[in-house]
Amino acid sequence: ERQIWLTRHGESTDNIIGRIGGNACLSAKGRRFAECLAKFISKQKIAFRQQQLAKHKADVEAEQQSDPSAIPAPEPPEKNFHVWTSLLQRTIDTVEHIDPKEFGIMHIRFLNEIYAGLYEEMTYREIEQLYPNEYNARKNNKLYYRYPGMGGESYLDVIHRVNPLIVELERMTDNILIVTHQVVLRIILAYFLDVDKESVPDMPVPLHTIYCLEPKPYGTKLTKWRYDE
Ligand code: F6P
Fold first, then answer.
1. 43-102 tens-digit pLDDT
2. Residue nearest atom 7 in ligand 1 by C-alpha distance
3. Active site (annotated) includes residue 226
4. Which of 9, 113, 127, 163 satisfies CB 3.0 to 4.6 Å to 181 for a cystine?
5. Ligand 1 pocket member 183 (CB < 6 A)
6. How far is CA 34 from CA 6, 48, 134, in A?
7. For ligand 1, is residue 30 a contact (CB within 6 Å)?
């Protein structure tokens, strides 16, 4: 039993004006989401531990009933809880209120948003007006389209970049919260929920929505929370 929590960063000042990429800070609303996220995840950590202890107690009682001379198993240790963000300011600010004594916080470049090369910090409208061919090329083939300019990426590039983290997530038995970006979140969710590659670029993953994945023997259970203010 373990949980993988996923969310995008809180709303950034660039989100408000529709600018892609960049390294903006959170808006006032984004900062309120960050405060709420810290409380939420702390509560979830406590709830998980309580469930784990309740299950342990039930197991011990059942064993005692079938064999009163059995020595009860000791309480299981509490799972570690990791928090991973990207290296971009908006994800780092989103975990600002999470207590580093309770959670192991790490910032990882592989979780950065798709890099839009020459079009970093432009709006879709500006791209459409200045580079209509490129705009349409992406619209018609979002999965394969690679942004022009140094370091420009496609969805496929990001899928390859994120893959080692997914391997790590598969292996890990601890709980984790990942605070990342629209494209990376789509890719991680799609992997665990078996969404085919072609549909990944169009998956709706709104801001201020928290996803919980629980890998089970029959597949992955998904629960969603929406922060509403
Ligand atoms: O607009 C926020 C954002 O994270 C951008 O930084 C990024 O380029 C974009 O979303 C990715 O979404 P899409 O692939 O749908 O354009």
1. 999 999 999 999 999 999 999 999 999 999 999 999 999 999 999 999 999 999 999 999
2. 20
3. no
4. 113
5. yes
6. 14, 21, 35
7. no
